[in-house]
Each structure stands twice: as C-alpha cells, then as structure tokens.
Design brief:
Length: 364
C-alpha cells in the first residue's frame, strides 16, 4: 500500500447501510464515496477507486447487472458483493463474473470485514503495479523497436553502400579488362543492355531486373584471371585453348562467391553457357535446372557473339543471328525467351551499344 488512503466506492440503495459502512471504513483509514444505485456507480467510477462495495439487490439495476457493465469498462477494481441473504446460486454466478469477495449485512465481525477490505486493496495495488509494469514494458519495447528500426535503416544504408561500392569496383575491373583487350571491348555492355531490355519485355519484377543487370555485368568476370591471349589468334582455337576458355564461368562464380548478397547472380554467372539439352558447360545442366534469368543471359550472350566481328569469320547480321537462335530454340535455348527476343530485338538495338568486337564466344 502507498501513503495515500485507499478510496472505496459504496453502492447501496439503503442510505443507512451506506453511511454505516462508510463510517466503519473511515475508522480504518479509508476514504469513501457513496451512491444509491448501479447506474450512479457506473457514472462516477474511474481508475481512482481501489475497491467497490456493491449491493446485490438494488432497484433499477441490480448488482449482477452493474458488475457486468463494470467488467466491460476494464478498470479491474476488486468488487465485494454486499448481501443480506445470499444463496449458493448467487455465489456461483458472482464468482463466474469475477467478483472478488462477499460481505454480509449487517457488518458484525469488524476484524473479518477489515481483513477482506485490506486484501481487496492489496489486490488493487497488485493490479496497478502490474499495469504500470506492462505499460513500462510496452513503452520500453516500443522505444527499443524504434531504435532497432533506426539501426536497421543505418545497416541497410551501409549494406547498400557496400554493395554498390563492390559492384562499382568489380565493374571497373571488368571495364579495364575489356578496354585492354580489343576482342572483348563492349561485349559486356551490350549483353547487359540486351538482357535488361529482354527482362523488361518478359515483365520481370524490378528486383529480378537488378539481379539480371548485375549478372550480365559480371557474366565474363572469370576472364580476369584467365590468360585469354589466345583469343586474338587469327585461326580457330585448339581444343586445349577451348578448354581454358570454358573455365571462365566457374572462375567467375568463385570470384563472386564471397559476396553473400549475390548468390543468385553467382548461379547465373556459373551457368550462362549451359544449354537446354544439357550440352553446355561447366555442369551440363538441362533447361529444367535453369532459371529464367540464366536463360535470358544465354540467349543475349550468344546473340552478341554471333553479331560481333570475329578474326576468323564475318559476323552475322541481325536476321541471320535470329534465324540461328530459332534453329537452336528448344535444343540450346529456351523457346519462350527466343520468341520474346526475336519479337523485340529491333527495339533492343540502339544506334550503337558499344563497339562490335571480335569474340570467340561459342554456341556449343
């Protein structure tokens, strides 16, 4: 209990009973307020009261009806029923409705009366402490949740900044490789443009387009650490040289692997030379094991290889390359991807996307 006297609300239609109980409570140090019925009690009750003494038999609104309405208000104030001649039915009904205790009229044993009131007041103090604890806990949770949101926002910003910096660094390395080697100059930029435009035509979601762009940017990054001087040869490559070139998807995937935010891009980089019939490399995956983004890169990468100049043969024009893609549709390339690419390719090709380059990308 606190230093402040407990406040008790008494509801009884008999004024003499009310005043008598109020005087007894006053001698025990409690403050009281009296009302003559249930409706009056409901009008004045609030959280400032610690205990309610409620007569069962009152005109207009009896004790049970009043208790029912009190329960709806949610003050959680202990209610003690005042009863002159209670019955077991009344007792069971009252207990089921949440009444705290019973007091018989007239009050004869003041010690028992005082004990019941004191316990009810202690119950109220416990309820209020628990309520304050829950409110403080909820406030603390809200405060910490807000802090976590702010921290997560900072972490996301940092993570995005780190991702962007990593992507920019890798792009710079990729560009440096292409600028140094005439035979790969512009290839990545064109493949990226084709891939993103084809993805948009296939109505991919924005997040998928981000992944597709990154995968296209880095699909040949494995060539950074492979000696590809052989691709400048004027004649066809030897089987040993072809095997060396075929390692670049695996090497590229290993370069990307430490970057946890590029798992999907890693798959695409590793498998952009796979084929629908399983004849591709490095793992010989069939079309049912490949996702749509990988299938897009497969098509646009091969298209750019066919339409780019080669040191040992003349490059195809757009129509010839489309015919080759359609001839290989179903066996090497996904038919749906080829169809959408064929239907929209003229819109994919601006006046100039990079500089056409000699390339030794192969379809098989």
């Amino acid at each position: 209990m606190t230093d402040k006297p407990a406040k008790i609300l008494i509801a009884d239609d008999e004024a003499l009973v009310c005043s008598t109980i109020a005087k007894i409570l006053g001698t025990f140090g409690y403050t009281t307020q009296m009302v003559e019925g249930g409706r009056q009690l409901l009008e004045c009750v609030d959280d400032s009261y610690d205990v309610i003494l409620l007569d069962i038999n009152m005109p207009g609104m009896n004790g049970f009806e009043t208790l029912n309405e009190l329960n709806k208000k949610g003050h959680e104030i202990p209610v003690l029923f005042l009863t002159g001649a209670g019955s077991m039915d009344h007792a069971l009904k009252a207990i089921n409705m949440g009444v705290y205790d019973f007091l018989t009229k007239p009050i004869e044993d003041l010690d028992i009366f005082n004990v019941k009131i004191r316990r009810a007041v202690e119950k109220r103090m416990y309820v209020l402490r628990e309520r304050r604890y829950k409110e403080a806990l909820e406030e603390d949770v809200q405060k910490k949740t807000k802090q976590l949101k702010e921290q997560n926002k900072l972490l996301r910003a940092y993570s995005n900044s780190l991702e962007n910096a990593t992507v920019q660094l890798m792009s710079s390395l990729q560009n440096a490789m292409e600028e140094k080697d005439y035979y790969t100059a512009g290839h990545t930029m064109r493949v990226t443009e084709y891939a993103v435009k084809l993805g948009a035509a296939m109505e991919l979601e924005s997040r998928e387009l981000v992944v597709l762009r990154r995968a296209a940017q880095f699909h040949d990054i494995g060539k950074l650490v492979i000696d590809l001087s052989c691709i400048q040869k004027p004649e066809s490559l030897s089987s040993k040289e072809l095997e060396l070139i075929k390692k670049h998807p695996t090497v590229g995937a290993n370069i990307i692997k430490p970057l946890g935010f590029m798992d999907q891009e890693l798959f695409i980089v590793r498998h952009h030379h796979e084929r629908m019939d399983g004849s591709g490399y490095p793992d010989g995956l069939t079309g049912d094991k490949l996702d749509d983004l990988t299938k897009i890169i497969m098509v646009v990468d091969s298209y750019d290889a066919m339409t780019s100049s080669r040191n040992y043969r003349t490059n195809m024009d757009t129509q010839e390359a489309l015919e080759e893609l359609n001839n290989c549709s179903g066996s090497l390339f996904d038919p749906d991807v080829v169809r959408v690419f064929s239907d929209n390719v003229q819109g994919f090709i601006p006046e100039q996307i990079g500089v056409p380059e000699p390339s030794r990308e192969i379809l098989s």
